[in-house]
Amino acid sequence: MSKSLEKSRRARVVVHATSVTSITLLLTSLVTSCATNPVTGRRELSLVSESQEIQMGREASQNDVRRVGALSGTPAEALVKRIGTKMAAGSERPNLPWEFHLLDDAAVNAFAYPGGFIFVTRGLMTHLNSEAELAEVIGHEIGHVTAKHSVAQMSQAQLAQIGLVGASIFSSTVAKYGDVLGAGTSLLFLKFGRDDELQSDALGFKYSLTDKYDVRESPKVFTTLGRLSGGAGRIPEWQSTHPDPGNRVQRAEQRIAQTPPAQLQGLTVNRDSYLKLLDGMVFGENPREGYFKGTRFLHPELRFQLDFPTGWRTANQPDAVIAQSPDQSAQLVLQGAQGTPAQVVQQFTQQQGITLKQSSQSSINGLTSAQASFDAQTEQGVINGLVIAISHQNATYMLLGLSAPAATAQRGPEMETAMRSFRPVTDNAVLSVQPARIKLITLTRQMTGQQFVQSYPSSIPAEQVYIINGIDASTSVAAGTILKQVVGGTLP
Fold first, then answer.
1. What digits encode the pLDDT tens for the residues 272-295?
2. Which domain holds residue 94?
3. What is the C-alpha to C-alpha distance for residues 71 and 323, in angstroms, rounded to an integer?
């Protein structure tokens, strides 16, 4: 949950359902048409024009930058932009308004919005070890755009999207998180199929080779993702929509073997210069933006804490903290709001589709608050809800509890107890917590991976250290090699 707590939404290759502009675009694009795919040259169904594709991608991109935050103006971001801009200029769609961003996000991820808006996360960058590896990832995402994978998916799902839009108009806030309850959704997440992924792998390889990057580094990207998926550390989001890392390593090796040897001469790796960009970069989740300790959520920067119900699944997202009951019948959301607590509750309950049942103003743990119970009408039925707004440290927070009617008797009290646990943080150990960061070590002698983790202890498990450095415990590393150590970040 970022300090700004902005309320914009994120989707991967999506139409934002509460955007009037996107609704209009969807409704007007239902005239069947065909277009030529710039990569394959084949004619294919397309219900989304290029201008619509660009507009939808730009809206989603701007929301991500505002909501998550970008590492703007940093040398690392400059590298992402330089690689991407050059690749895109030589691609099959050079005239798109290409943009390349480095998100301040711990997720090991990279993704493309339609229209040429490409994102790489710092989480992914800290797991790569050369400019050539980064180029392979960026080329892959460019491939999704040039091959119009998202356009094809949106065209196939167009009618379904219209139905989802209609279901979500009743309330932008309820709609934003209502999909978990099966009562409507505001976002349509489109995952690419196996053929699309393999085609983008091949395109990324081609773009990298064209720009003189050493494509022999490409298997390392898929190897790293595969190792993360094997249980060491957080499973990368990029991997969740990019299956079969083992097969993709083999395919990358096959492409290398089929490349004429002359084309593999004089290629760029840029390992050391790339690693130097990572020195001091935050590694993993930044606890300054909130973290969980058991069921308790603590936010050092904003100085509050909240106890979620036992057994509920929780997630700290850039714009909200979300919890879901084990049976998925209820959901609890904490997010920032504008105005006084009374104004926030009033504005919420006045939205279309919301029926106010009861409202009041009170004090919660010494903090000014207002609350209201309500019903929300959707195309699938009624959702029961409770909204509480609380003022703390010159900011207002909205807590929203949603439940299916059949579950309200059980989940309602759980949610209200959690919402009323919102209180200030006073523990100095929590208030002073800092994130883990990358520290570069230049080896003064040859050593194995195991000797490295013993000589330079990290604040993450040894297996994770091996993964982020692309080595194993038994790997012999030469003197003069730069390796990553992770320091700091121990939670109280």
1. 999 999 999 999 999 999 999 999
2. 20-270
3. 28
